[in-house]
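Researcher: Let's do a round of design. I'm pasting the C-alpha coordinates now; please hold your answer until I've finished.
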Protein backbone atom coordinates (compact mmCIF):
# COMPACT_ATOMS: atom_id res chain seq x y z
CA UNK A 1 0.00 0.00 0.00
CA UNK A 2 1.26 3.46 -0.91
CA UNK A 3 0.63 6.25 1.62
CA UNK A 4 1.09 9.82 0.44
CA UNK A 5 3.58 12.09 2.23
CA UNK A 6 0.69 14.48 2.92
CA UNK A 7 -1.31 11.79 4.72
CA UNK A 8 1.70 10.70 6.80
CA UNK A 9 2.38 14.36 7.71
CA UNK A 10 -1.22 14.67 8.90
CA UNK A 11 -0.85 11.49 11.00
CA UNK A 12 2.34 12.79 12.64
CA UNK A 13 0.68 16.18 13.29
CA UNK A 14 -2.21 14.57 15.15
CA UNK A 15 -0.02 12.43 17.42
CA UNK A 16 1.72 13.79 20.53
CA UNK A 17 5.03 11.94 20.46
CA UNK A 18 5.74 12.20 24.20
CA UNK A 19 2.32 10.66 24.96
CA UNK A 20 3.18 7.64 22.79
CA UNK A 21 6.67 7.16 24.23
CA UNK A 22 5.63 7.73 27.87
CA UNK A 23 3.50 4.57 27.79
CA UNK A 24 6.61 2.43 28.01
CA UNK A 25 9.38 4.89 28.97
CA UNK A 26 9.40 7.24 31.94
CA UNK A 27 9.93 10.80 30.68
CA UNK A 28 11.01 13.85 32.66
CA UNK A 29 10.26 17.41 31.56
CA UNK A 30 13.40 19.38 30.68
CA UNK A 31 12.68 22.84 29.30
CA UNK A 32 10.83 22.48 26.00
CA UNK A 33 11.74 18.79 25.73
CA UNK A 34 11.51 15.55 27.68
CA UNK A 35 14.46 13.44 28.86
CA UNK A 36 14.83 9.78 29.78
CA UNK A 37 17.35 6.98 30.01
CA UNK A 38 17.52 5.55 26.51
CA UNK A 39 15.32 2.46 26.01
CA UNK A 40 17.59 1.27 23.19
CA UNK A 41 20.79 0.86 25.24
CA UNK A 42 21.78 0.60 28.89
CA UNK A 43 22.75 3.89 30.52
CA UNK A 44 22.69 5.46 34.00
CA UNK A 45 22.27 9.13 33.07
CA UNK A 46 19.61 10.28 30.58
CA UNK A 47 20.75 11.09 27.06
CA UNK A 48 17.46 10.30 25.30
CA UNK A 49 15.34 13.38 24.38
CA UNK A 50 11.81 13.78 22.98
CA UNK A 51 10.75 16.98 21.23
CA UNK A 52 6.99 17.26 20.60
CA UNK A 53 7.26 20.49 18.64
CA UNK A 54 9.69 18.98 16.14
CA UNK A 55 8.08 15.55 16.28
CA UNK A 56 11.17 13.39 16.85
CA UNK A 57 13.18 11.59 19.54
CA UNK A 58 16.97 11.38 19.64
CA UNK A 59 19.56 9.62 21.79
CA UNK A 60 22.94 11.32 22.07
CA UNK A 61 24.41 8.06 23.38
CA UNK A 62 23.53 5.49 20.74
CA UNK A 63 22.18 7.74 17.97
CA UNK A 64 18.64 6.32 17.95
CA UNK A 65 16.45 8.80 16.11
CA UNK A 66 12.96 8.83 14.63
CA UNK A 67 9.31 9.89 14.76
CA UNK A 68 6.20 8.22 16.21
CA UNK A 69 6.05 5.62 13.43
CA UNK A 70 9.75 4.75 13.84
CA UNK A 71 9.21 4.40 17.60
CA UNK A 72 6.43 1.88 17.07
CA UNK A 73 8.52 -0.19 14.65
CA UNK A 74 11.87 -0.05 16.51
CA UNK A 75 10.74 -0.12 20.15
CA UNK A 76 7.45 -2.03 19.85
CA UNK A 77 8.57 -4.29 17.02
CA UNK A 78 5.52 -3.61 14.83
CA UNK A 79 5.55 -3.66 11.06
CA UNK A 80 5.31 -0.30 9.32
CA UNK A 81 1.64 -0.73 8.37
CA UNK A 82 0.68 -2.09 11.80
CA UNK A 83 2.33 0.94 13.40
CA UNK A 84 0.52 3.29 11.02
CA UNK A 85 -2.85 1.62 11.65
CA UNK A 86 -2.46 1.78 15.45
CA UNK A 87 -1.46 5.45 15.40
CA UNK A 88 -4.18 6.32 12.88
CA UNK A 89 -6.79 4.71 15.13
CA UNK A 90 -5.66 6.90 18.04
CA UNK A 91 -5.64 10.02 15.85
CA UNK A 92 -9.08 9.39 14.36
CA UNK A 93 -7.70 9.04 10.84
CA UNK A 94 -8.84 6.49 8.30
CA UNK A 95 -6.00 4.66 6.58
CA UNK A 96 -6.40 5.11 2.81
CA UNK A 97 -7.76 2.07 1.05
CA UNK A 98 -5.30 0.18 -1.19
CA UNK A 99 -6.94 1.12 -4.48
CA UNK A 100 -6.51 3.79 -7.14
CA UNK A 101 -9.01 6.06 -5.40
CA UNK A 102 -6.42 6.96 -2.73
CA UNK A 103 -3.98 8.20 -5.33
CA UNK A 104 -6.81 10.01 -7.08
CA UNK A 105 -7.79 11.80 -3.84
CA UNK A 106 -4.18 12.89 -3.24
CA UNK A 107 -4.00 14.17 -6.80
CA UNK A 108 -7.29 16.01 -6.26
CA UNK A 109 -5.95 17.77 -3.16
CA UNK A 110 -2.80 18.76 -5.02
CA UNK A 111 -4.91 20.32 -7.79
CA UNK A 112 -6.94 22.24 -5.18
CA UNK A 113 -3.67 23.64 -3.78
CA UNK A 114 -2.94 24.92 -7.29
CA UNK A 115 -6.37 26.59 -7.40
CA UNK A 116 -5.85 28.29 -4.02
CA UNK A 117 -2.36 29.49 -4.96
CA UNK A 118 -3.72 31.02 -8.16
CA UNK A 119 -6.59 32.69 -6.28
CA UNK A 120 -4.15 34.15 -3.76
CA UNK A 121 -1.97 35.58 -6.52
CA UNK A 122 -5.04 37.14 -8.15
CA UNK A 123 -6.26 38.70 -4.88
CA UNK A 124 -2.81 40.24 -4.28
CA UNK A 125 -2.77 41.60 -7.82
CA UNK A 126 -6.23 43.17 -7.38
CA UNK A 127 -5.15 44.87 -4.14
CA UNK A 128 -2.35 46.63 -6.00
CA UNK A 129 -4.69 47.73 -8.81
CA UNK A 130 -7.03 50.72 -8.95
CA UNK A 131 -9.85 48.47 -7.74
CA UNK A 132 -8.00 47.91 -4.46
CA UNK A 133 -7.73 51.58 -3.46
CA UNK A 134 -10.42 51.37 -0.78
CA UNK A 135 -8.89 48.18 0.66
CA UNK A 136 -5.45 49.83 0.77
CA UNK A 137 -7.02 52.76 2.58
CA UNK A 138 -8.49 50.47 5.21
CA UNK A 139 -5.11 48.81 5.77
CA UNK A 140 -3.56 52.25 6.25
CA UNK A 141 -6.13 53.13 8.93
CA UNK A 142 -5.15 49.93 10.78
CA UNK A 143 -1.51 51.03 10.74
CA UNK A 144 -0.26 48.04 8.70
CA UNK A 145 2.89 48.94 6.79
CA UNK A 146 3.94 47.50 3.42
CA UNK A 147 6.07 44.80 5.05
CA UNK A 148 3.12 43.54 7.15
CA UNK A 149 0.77 43.64 4.15
CA UNK A 150 3.20 41.59 2.08
CA UNK A 151 4.17 39.18 4.88
CA UNK A 152 0.57 38.20 5.62
CA UNK A 153 -0.50 38.18 1.97
CA UNK A 154 -3.35 40.70 2.01
CA UNK A 155 -5.40 40.90 -1.18
CA UNK A 156 -8.68 42.23 -2.50
CA UNK A 157 -11.73 40.49 -4.01
CA UNK A 158 -13.42 42.92 -6.41
CA UNK A 159 -17.15 43.42 -6.75
CA UNK A 160 -18.87 41.33 -9.37
CA UNK A 161 -20.36 37.86 -9.20
CA UNK A 162 -18.28 36.42 -12.06
CA UNK A 163 -14.92 38.19 -11.65
CA UNK A 164 -13.04 35.17 -10.30
CA UNK A 165 -14.41 32.83 -12.94
CA UNK A 166 -13.04 35.13 -15.62
CA UNK A 167 -9.65 35.50 -13.87
CA UNK A 168 -9.15 31.78 -13.14
CA UNK A 169 -10.56 30.42 -16.34
CA UNK A 170 -7.77 27.84 -16.58
CA UNK A 171 -9.51 25.82 -13.84
CA UNK A 172 -12.82 23.98 -14.29
CA UNK A 173 -15.86 25.52 -12.62
CA UNK A 174 -16.21 22.40 -10.45
CA UNK A 175 -12.72 22.95 -8.97
CA UNK A 176 -13.51 26.55 -8.03
CA UNK A 177 -16.68 25.39 -6.29
CA UNK A 178 -14.89 22.51 -4.53
CA UNK A 179 -12.23 24.95 -3.27
CA UNK A 180 -14.95 27.13 -1.73
CA UNK A 181 -14.24 30.09 -4.03
CA UNK A 182 -17.54 29.90 -5.91
CA UNK A 183 -21.06 29.01 -4.72
CA UNK A 184 -23.33 26.70 -6.67
CA UNK A 185 -27.09 27.19 -6.26
CA UNK A 186 -29.74 24.94 -7.78
CA UNK A 187 -31.08 26.17 -11.12
CA UNK A 188 -28.90 29.30 -11.00
CA UNK A 189 -25.52 30.26 -12.35
CA UNK A 190 -22.70 29.82 -9.76
CA UNK A 191 -21.26 33.03 -8.36
CA UNK A 192 -18.14 34.25 -6.49
CA UNK A 193 -18.21 33.72 -2.72
CA UNK A 194 -15.96 36.71 -1.92
CA UNK A 195 -16.99 40.08 -3.38
CA UNK A 196 -15.89 43.57 -2.36
CA UNK A 197 -13.80 42.28 0.55
CA UNK A 198 -10.29 42.69 1.92
CA UNK A 199 -8.84 39.19 1.58
CA UNK A 200 -6.44 37.28 3.80
CA UNK A 201 -5.04 33.81 3.05
CA UNK A 202 -5.35 31.07 5.67
CA UNK A 203 -2.42 28.65 5.54
CA UNK A 204 -1.83 25.13 6.83
CA UNK A 205 1.08 23.99 9.00
CA UNK A 206 3.32 23.88 5.91
CA UNK A 207 2.44 27.44 4.86
CA UNK A 208 0.21 26.45 1.93
CA UNK A 209 -2.98 28.45 1.27
CA UNK A 210 -5.99 26.28 2.15
CA UNK A 211 -8.73 28.89 2.68
CA UNK A 212 -9.48 32.60 2.79
CA UNK A 213 -10.98 35.11 5.16
CA UNK A 214 -12.63 38.25 3.84
CA UNK A 215 -13.58 41.48 5.63
CA UNK A 216 -16.39 43.54 4.19
CA UNK A 217 -15.44 47.10 3.26
CA UNK A 218 -18.92 48.53 2.68
CA UNK A 219 -20.25 49.34 6.16
CA UNK A 220 -23.71 49.91 4.70
CA UNK A 221 -24.18 46.24 3.85
CA UNK A 222 -26.11 45.07 6.90
CA UNK A 223 -27.32 41.89 5.19
CA UNK A 224 -23.83 40.38 4.93
CA UNK A 225 -21.51 39.15 7.71
CA UNK A 226 -18.62 41.48 8.59
CA UNK A 227 -16.11 38.62 8.29
CA UNK A 228 -16.59 35.69 5.93
CA UNK A 229 -14.38 32.59 5.88
CA UNK A 230 -14.14 29.78 3.35
CA UNK A 231 -16.41 26.80 4.05
CA UNK A 232 -14.94 23.44 4.98
CA UNK A 233 -13.32 21.82 1.94
CA UNK A 234 -11.03 18.82 1.30
CA UNK A 235 -8.18 21.20 2.24
CA UNK A 236 -9.76 23.20 5.06
CA UNK A 237 -11.34 22.10 8.35
CA UNK A 238 -11.88 25.24 10.41
CA UNK A 239 -12.22 23.25 13.64
CA UNK A 240 -8.73 21.78 13.15
CA UNK A 241 -7.01 24.94 11.89
CA UNK A 242 -5.42 27.83 13.80
CA UNK A 243 -4.60 30.94 11.87
CA UNK A 244 -0.86 31.82 11.80
CA UNK A 245 0.25 28.56 13.45
CA UNK A 246 3.00 28.01 10.86
CA UNK A 247 4.55 31.41 11.71
CA UNK A 248 3.86 31.40 15.46
CA UNK A 249 5.20 27.87 16.04
CA UNK A 250 8.90 28.67 15.54
CA UNK A 251 8.55 31.88 17.59
CA UNK A 252 6.76 29.95 20.34
CA UNK A 253 9.63 27.47 20.64
CA UNK A 254 11.88 30.41 21.48
CA UNK A 255 9.46 32.26 23.79
CA UNK A 256 7.93 29.21 25.48
CA UNK A 257 4.53 30.85 25.04
CA UNK A 258 1.60 30.75 22.64
CA UNK A 259 -1.06 33.49 22.67
CA UNK A 260 -4.60 32.90 21.38
CA UNK A 261 -6.57 35.96 20.28
CA UNK A 262 -10.06 36.29 18.79
CA UNK A 263 -9.37 36.96 15.12
CA UNK A 264 -6.73 37.16 12.44
CA UNK A 265 -6.64 40.98 12.55
CA UNK A 266 -5.60 40.77 16.22
CA UNK A 267 -2.85 38.29 15.26
CA UNK A 268 -1.50 40.66 12.62
CA UNK A 269 -1.69 43.70 14.91
CA UNK A 270 0.34 41.87 17.58
CA UNK A 271 2.88 40.65 15.00
CA UNK A 272 3.30 44.23 13.75
CA UNK A 273 4.00 45.24 17.36
CA UNK A 274 6.69 42.56 17.78
CA UNK A 275 4.59 39.81 19.42
CA UNK A 276 4.90 36.99 16.90
CA UNK A 277 3.68 34.00 18.91
CA UNK A 278 -0.07 34.64 18.45
CA UNK A 279 -2.69 32.50 16.70
CA UNK A 280 -6.47 32.69 16.31
CA UNK A 281 -9.44 30.37 15.72
CA UNK A 282 -11.42 30.99 12.55
CA UNK A 283 -14.85 32.44 13.15
CA UNK A 284 -15.97 30.02 15.86
CA UNK A 285 -15.21 29.36 19.51
CA UNK A 286 -11.95 27.53 20.24
CA UNK A 287 -12.55 23.82 19.59
CA UNK A 288 -11.24 20.75 21.38
CA UNK A 289 -9.03 19.90 18.39
CA UNK A 290 -7.54 23.39 18.39
CA UNK A 291 -6.79 23.13 22.11
CA UNK A 292 -4.92 19.87 21.45
CA UNK A 293 -2.96 21.63 18.68
CA UNK A 294 -1.96 24.37 21.13
CA UNK A 295 -0.82 21.81 23.72
CA UNK A 296 1.54 20.23 21.24
CA UNK A 297 3.54 23.45 21.26
CA UNK A 298 3.15 24.68 24.85
CA UNK A 299 1.61 23.18 27.95
CA UNK A 300 -0.23 26.32 29.07
CA UNK A 301 -1.25 28.61 26.17
CA UNK A 302 -2.60 32.08 26.99
CA UNK A 303 -6.08 33.12 25.85
CA UNK A 304 -6.30 36.86 25.25
CA UNK A 305 -9.76 37.83 24.06
CA UNK A 306 -11.37 41.26 23.84
CA UNK A 307 -12.39 43.08 27.01
CA UNK A 308 -16.07 43.38 26.03
CA UNK A 309 -18.82 40.97 27.07
CA UNK A 310 -18.49 39.02 23.82
CA UNK A 311 -14.78 38.47 24.35
CA UNK A 312 -15.28 37.25 27.88
CA UNK A 313 -18.02 34.88 26.75
CA UNK A 314 -15.65 33.52 24.10
CA UNK A 315 -13.03 32.94 26.77
CA UNK A 316 -15.49 31.08 28.98
CA UNK A 317 -16.64 28.91 26.09
CA UNK A 318 -13.01 27.95 25.55
CA UNK A 319 -12.63 27.19 29.26
CA UNK A 320 -15.74 24.98 29.17
CA UNK A 321 -14.32 23.01 26.26
CA UNK A 322 -10.89 22.69 27.84
CA UNK A 323 -12.10 21.27 31.17
CA UNK A 324 -12.90 17.75 29.85
CA UNK A 325 -9.48 17.63 28.15
CA UNK A 326 -7.30 18.70 31.09
CA UNK A 327 -4.37 16.44 31.85
CA UNK A 328 -1.37 16.79 34.16
CA UNK A 329 0.68 19.94 33.48
CA UNK A 330 -1.63 21.00 30.60
CA UNK A 331 -4.04 23.87 31.15
CA UNK A 332 -4.92 27.39 29.96
CA UNK A 333 -4.24 30.90 31.18
CA UNK A 334 -6.60 33.77 30.49
CA UNK A 335 -5.94 37.50 30.11
CA UNK A 336 -8.80 39.89 30.82
CA UNK A 337 -8.23 43.02 28.76
CA UNK A 338 -9.67 46.38 29.88
CA UNK A 339 -13.33 46.82 29.02
CA UNK A 340 -13.95 47.79 25.42
CA UNK A 341 -10.37 47.13 24.28
CA UNK A 342 -8.90 44.51 21.97
CA UNK A 343 -5.17 43.65 21.68
CA UNK A 344 -4.69 46.17 18.86
CA UNK A 345 -6.24 48.98 20.96
CA UNK A 346 -4.03 48.18 23.95
CA UNK A 347 -0.84 48.09 21.92
CA UNK A 348 -1.63 51.36 20.16
CA UNK A 349 -2.64 53.23 23.32
CA UNK A 350 -0.19 51.85 25.88
CA UNK A 351 2.53 50.14 23.84
CA UNK A 352 3.91 46.62 23.44
CA UNK A 353 5.32 46.61 26.98
CA UNK A 354 1.82 46.99 28.44
CA UNK A 355 0.62 44.03 26.38
CA UNK A 356 3.57 41.93 27.53
CA UNK A 357 2.79 42.80 31.18
CA UNK A 358 -0.80 41.65 30.77
CA UNK A 359 0.28 38.39 29.15
CA UNK A 360 2.73 37.83 32.00
CA UNK A 361 -0.02 38.39 34.59
CA UNK A 362 -2.54 36.01 33.00
CA UNK A 363 -4.93 34.23 35.39
CA UNK A 364 -5.02 30.48 35.82
CA UNK A 365 -7.97 28.51 34.50
CA UNK A 366 -9.35 27.79 37.98
CA UNK A 367 -9.06 31.46 39.02
CA UNK A 368 -10.92 32.50 35.87
CA UNK A 369 -13.61 29.89 36.44
CA UNK A 370 -14.14 31.01 40.04
CA UNK A 371 -14.23 34.72 39.17
CA UNK A 372 -16.65 34.18 36.28
CA UNK A 373 -19.16 32.11 38.23
CA UNK A 374 -18.91 34.38 41.27
CA UNK A 375 -19.90 37.33 39.07
CA UNK A 376 -22.41 35.48 36.87
CA UNK A 377 -25.43 36.07 39.13
CA UNK A 378 -26.38 37.95 42.31
CA UNK A 379 -25.23 36.33 45.55
CA UNK A 380 -27.49 38.10 48.02
CA UNK A 381 -29.41 35.11 49.39
CA UNK A 382 -28.56 31.60 50.56
CA UNK A 383 -30.29 30.29 47.44
CA UNK A 384 -28.03 32.43 45.26
CA UNK A 385 -24.94 31.11 47.00
CA UNK A 386 -26.14 27.52 46.64
CA UNK A 387 -26.56 28.24 42.94
CA UNK A 388 -22.92 29.31 42.78
CA UNK A 389 -21.87 26.02 44.34
CA UNK A 390 -24.03 24.05 41.90
CA UNK A 391 -22.53 25.84 38.92
CA UNK A 392 -18.99 25.25 40.11
CA UNK A 393 -19.60 21.55 40.71
CA UNK A 394 -21.25 21.23 37.30
CA UNK A 395 -18.00 22.46 35.73
CA UNK A 396 -15.97 20.05 37.85
CA UNK A 397 -18.06 17.10 36.68
CA UNK A 398 -16.97 17.69 33.08
CA UNK A 399 -13.26 17.12 33.87
CA UNK A 400 -12.09 13.78 32.52
CA UNK A 401 -8.86 13.26 34.47
CA UNK A 402 -9.86 11.90 37.89
CA UNK A 403 -6.91 13.38 39.79
CA UNK A 404 -7.49 16.84 38.35
CA UNK A 405 -11.24 16.53 38.97
CA UNK A 406 -10.63 15.73 42.65
CA UNK A 407 -8.19 18.61 43.03
CA UNK A 408 -10.56 21.08 41.33
CA UNK A 409 -13.45 19.92 43.50
CA UNK A 410 -11.45 20.39 46.68
CA UNK A 411 -10.03 23.78 45.67
CA UNK A 412 -13.35 25.22 44.51
CA UNK A 413 -15.25 23.89 47.53
CA UNK A 414 -12.65 25.44 49.83
CA UNK A 415 -13.05 28.78 48.06
CA UNK A 416 -16.83 28.48 48.25
CA UNK A 417 -16.73 27.65 51.96
CA UNK A 418 -14.46 30.60 52.69
CA UNK A 419 -16.84 32.87 50.76
CA UNK A 420 -20.19 31.49 51.95
CA UNK A 421 -19.20 30.63 55.52
CA UNK A 422 -16.70 33.29 56.65
CA UNK A 423 -15.13 32.84 60.05
CA UNK A 424 -17.15 34.36 62.88
CA UNK A 425 -16.24 35.47 66.37
CA UNK A 426 -15.31 32.71 68.78
CA UNK A 427 -18.28 31.35 70.75
CA UNK A 428 -18.85 32.38 74.38
CA UNK A 429 -16.97 30.55 77.09
CA UNK A 430 -18.51 29.09 80.25
CA UNK A 431 -17.45 30.36 83.67
CA UNK A 432 -15.40 27.21 84.13
CA UNK A 433 -13.22 28.17 81.18
CA UNK A 434 -14.62 25.41 78.93
CA UNK A 435 -16.54 25.90 75.67
CA UNK A 436 -20.28 26.10 76.25
CA UNK A 437 -21.93 22.94 74.97
CA UNK A 438 -25.02 22.87 72.79
CA UNK A 439 -27.51 20.14 73.63
CA UNK A 440 -29.86 18.69 71.04
CA UNK A 441 -32.74 18.36 73.52
CA UNK A 442 -36.36 19.37 73.47
CA UNK A 443 -36.93 22.59 71.55
CA UNK A 444 -33.48 23.99 72.32
CA UNK A 445 -32.17 23.60 68.70
CA UNK A 446 -33.37 22.08 65.47
CA UNK A 447 -31.97 18.55 65.22
CA UNK A 448 -29.52 17.78 62.41
CA UNK A 449 -31.11 16.60 59.14
CA UNK A 450 -31.54 12.86 58.92
CA UNK A 451 -29.46 10.96 56.40
CA UNK A 452 -31.28 9.47 53.46
CA UNK A 453 -31.91 5.77 53.15
CA UNK A 454 -30.97 3.79 50.02
CA UNK A 455 -34.69 3.84 49.08
CA UNK A 456 -34.75 7.66 49.35
CA UNK A 457 -31.65 7.91 47.18
CA UNK A 458 -33.11 5.66 44.48
CA UNK A 459 -36.37 7.64 44.43
CA UNK A 460 -34.54 10.95 44.12
CA UNK A 461 -32.27 9.65 41.35
CA UNK A 462 -35.39 8.63 39.42
CA UNK A 463 -37.09 11.98 39.97
CA UNK A 464 -33.99 13.89 38.83
CA UNK A 465 -33.57 12.01 35.59
CA UNK A 466 -34.33 12.87 32.01
CA UNK A 467 -36.02 15.59 29.98
CA UNK A 468 -36.37 16.28 26.26
CA UNK A 469 -33.33 18.53 26.21
CA UNK A 470 -32.54 18.19 22.51
CA UNK A 471 -36.08 19.22 21.54
CA UNK A 472 -35.99 22.14 23.96
CA UNK A 473 -32.58 23.20 22.64
CA UNK A 474 -33.84 23.12 19.04
CA UNK A 475 -36.95 25.09 20.01
CA UNK A 476 -34.91 27.79 21.77
CA UNK A 477 -32.63 28.19 18.74
CA UNK A 478 -35.67 28.42 16.45
CA UNK A 479 -37.21 30.96 18.82
CA UNK A 480 -34.14 33.21 18.72
CA UNK A 481 -34.08 33.00 14.91
CA UNK A 482 -37.69 34.23 14.89
CA UNK A 483 -37.02 36.87 17.57
CA UNK A 484 -33.34 37.89 17.22
CA UNK A 485 -33.84 41.05 19.26
CA UNK A 486 -34.08 38.85 22.39
CA UNK A 487 -30.65 37.22 22.00
CA UNK A 488 -28.72 40.00 23.72
CA UNK A 489 -31.05 39.85 26.73
CA UNK A 490 -30.04 36.22 27.35
CA UNK A 491 -26.43 36.33 26.11
CA UNK A 492 -24.81 35.74 29.50
CA UNK A 493 -27.02 32.72 30.20
CA UNK A 494 -26.46 31.28 26.74
CA UNK A 495 -22.68 31.63 27.10
CA UNK A 496 -22.90 28.98 29.84
CA UNK A 497 -24.38 26.49 27.35
CA UNK A 498 -20.98 25.89 25.61
CA UNK A 499 -20.91 22.47 24.01
CA UNK A 500 -24.70 22.02 24.05
CA UNK A 501 -25.16 22.92 20.38
CA UNK A 502 -22.70 24.77 18.07
CA UNK A 503 -25.59 26.89 16.83
CA UNK A 504 -25.67 28.72 20.18
CA UNK A 505 -22.11 29.91 19.47
CA UNK A 506 -23.29 31.36 16.16
CA UNK A 507 -26.21 33.13 17.86
CA UNK A 508 -23.86 34.71 20.39
CA UNK A 509 -21.32 35.70 17.73
CA UNK A 510 -24.08 37.23 15.61
CA UNK A 511 -25.44 39.18 18.58
CA UNK A 512 -21.97 40.57 19.24
CA UNK A 513 -21.66 41.90 15.67
CA UNK A 514 -22.29 45.56 14.99
CA UNK A 515 -24.91 44.92 12.26
CA UNK A 516 -28.60 44.73 13.29
CA UNK A 517 -30.01 41.22 13.21
CA UNK A 518 -33.06 39.81 11.46
CA UNK A 519 -34.27 36.27 10.88
CA UNK A 520 -33.04 36.14 7.29
CA UNK A 521 -29.54 37.29 8.28
CA UNK A 522 -29.34 34.65 11.02
CA UNK A 523 -30.42 31.93 8.60
CA UNK A 524 -27.76 33.09 6.14
CA UNK A 525 -25.08 33.00 8.87
CA UNK A 526 -26.11 29.45 9.84
CA UNK A 527 -25.97 28.25 6.24
CA UNK A 528 -22.60 29.94 5.61
CA UNK A 529 -21.15 27.84 8.45
CA UNK A 530 -22.73 24.62 7.17
CA UNK A 531 -25.30 24.46 9.99
CA UNK A 532 -29.02 24.17 9.31
CA UNK A 533 -31.59 26.03 11.44
CA UNK A 534 -33.80 23.66 13.46
CA UNK A 535 -36.66 22.10 11.53
CA UNK A 536 -40.19 22.10 13.03
CA UNK A 537 -39.98 18.35 13.45
CA UNK A 538 -37.12 18.82 15.91
CA UNK A 539 -39.32 20.54 18.48
CA UNK A 540 -42.96 20.25 17.38
CA UNK A 541 -43.96 17.97 20.25
CA UNK A 542 -44.52 21.00 22.49
CA UNK A 543 -46.19 24.18 21.07
CA UNK A 544 -43.84 26.72 22.60
CA UNK A 545 -45.18 30.23 21.97
CA UNK A 546 -41.82 31.55 20.74
CA UNK A 547 -41.96 29.26 17.67
CA UNK A 548 -45.52 30.28 16.85
CA UNK A 549 -46.40 32.88 14.23
CA UNK A 550 -49.14 34.66 16.19
CA UNK A 551 -48.02 34.63 19.85
CA UNK A 552 -48.14 37.79 21.98
CA UNK A 553 -44.72 39.51 22.22
CA UNK A 554 -44.76 39.65 26.03
CA UNK A 555 -45.69 35.98 26.19
CA UNK A 556 -42.88 35.13 23.76
CA UNK A 557 -40.35 36.97 25.95
CA UNK A 558 -41.57 35.20 29.12
CA UNK A 559 -41.55 31.80 27.45
CA UNK A 560 -38.04 32.22 26.02
CA UNK A 561 -36.74 33.34 29.41
CA UNK A 562 -38.28 30.26 31.03
CA UNK A 563 -36.91 27.94 28.33
CA UNK A 564 -33.39 29.37 28.51
CA UNK A 565 -33.39 29.08 32.32
CA UNK A 566 -34.49 25.45 32.03
CA UNK A 567 -31.92 24.68 29.34
CA UNK A 568 -28.95 26.24 31.15
CA UNK A 569 -29.70 25.54 34.80
CA UNK A 570 -30.91 21.94 34.52
CA UNK A 571 -27.45 20.37 33.81
CA UNK A 572 -25.92 22.20 36.79
CA UNK A 573 -28.80 21.09 39.01
CA UNK A 574 -28.47 17.48 37.83
CA UNK A 575 -24.75 17.52 38.62
CA UNK A 576 -25.42 18.97 42.06
CA UNK A 577 -28.11 16.32 42.71
CA UNK A 578 -25.60 13.62 41.80
CA UNK A 579 -23.09 15.12 44.22
CA UNK A 580 -25.68 15.37 47.00
CA UNK A 581 -26.72 11.79 46.33
CA UNK A 582 -23.18 10.50 46.82
CA UNK A 583 -23.07 12.38 50.14
CA UNK A 584 -26.51 11.10 51.23
CA UNK A 585 -27.58 14.71 51.77
CA UNK A 586 -31.38 14.39 51.56
CA UNK A 587 -32.06 18.03 52.43
CA UNK A 588 -29.85 19.29 49.59
CA UNK A 589 -31.39 16.79 47.18
CA UNK A 590 -34.91 17.94 48.05
CA UNK A 591 -33.97 21.61 47.63
CA UNK A 592 -32.43 20.97 44.20
CA UNK A 593 -35.36 18.88 43.03
CA UNK A 594 -37.72 21.65 44.12
CA UNK A 595 -35.75 24.13 42.00
CA UNK A 596 -35.88 21.74 39.04
CA UNK A 597 -39.67 21.38 39.42
CA UNK A 598 -39.97 25.15 39.68
CA UNK A 599 -38.17 25.62 36.34
CA UNK A 600 -40.30 22.97 34.63
CA UNK A 601 -43.56 24.39 36.04
CA UNK A 602 -42.64 27.90 34.96
CA UNK A 603 -42.08 26.73 31.38
CA UNK A 604 -45.24 24.61 31.43
CA UNK A 605 -47.39 27.45 32.78
CA UNK A 606 -46.28 29.97 30.18
CA UNK A 607 -46.82 27.37 27.42
CA UNK A 608 -50.36 26.68 28.68
CA UNK A 609 -51.09 30.40 28.82
CA UNK A 610 -50.21 30.61 25.13
CA UNK A 611 -52.67 27.84 24.30
CA UNK A 612 -55.51 29.33 26.35
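Researcher: That's everything. Go ahead.
Model: Designed sequence:
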Amino acid sequence: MSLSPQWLDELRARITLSAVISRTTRLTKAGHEFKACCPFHNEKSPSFTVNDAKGFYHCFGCGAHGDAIRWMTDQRGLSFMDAVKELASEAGLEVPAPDPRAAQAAEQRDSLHDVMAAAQAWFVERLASDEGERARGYLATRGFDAHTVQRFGFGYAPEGRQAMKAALGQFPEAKLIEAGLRIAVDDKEPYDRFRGRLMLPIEDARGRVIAFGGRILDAGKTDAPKYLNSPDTPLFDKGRTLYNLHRAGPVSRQSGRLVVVEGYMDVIALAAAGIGDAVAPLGTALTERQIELLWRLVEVPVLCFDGDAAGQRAAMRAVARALPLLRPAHSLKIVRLPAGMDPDDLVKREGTAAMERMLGDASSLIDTLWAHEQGAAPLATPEDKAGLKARLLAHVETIGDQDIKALYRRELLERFSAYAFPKREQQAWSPQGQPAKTEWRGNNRTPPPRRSSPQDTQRLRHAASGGARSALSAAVIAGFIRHPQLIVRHADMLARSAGLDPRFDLLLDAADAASPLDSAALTTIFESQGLAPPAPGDYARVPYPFVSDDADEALVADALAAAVAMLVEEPAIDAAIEDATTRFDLAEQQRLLARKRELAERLRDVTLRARA
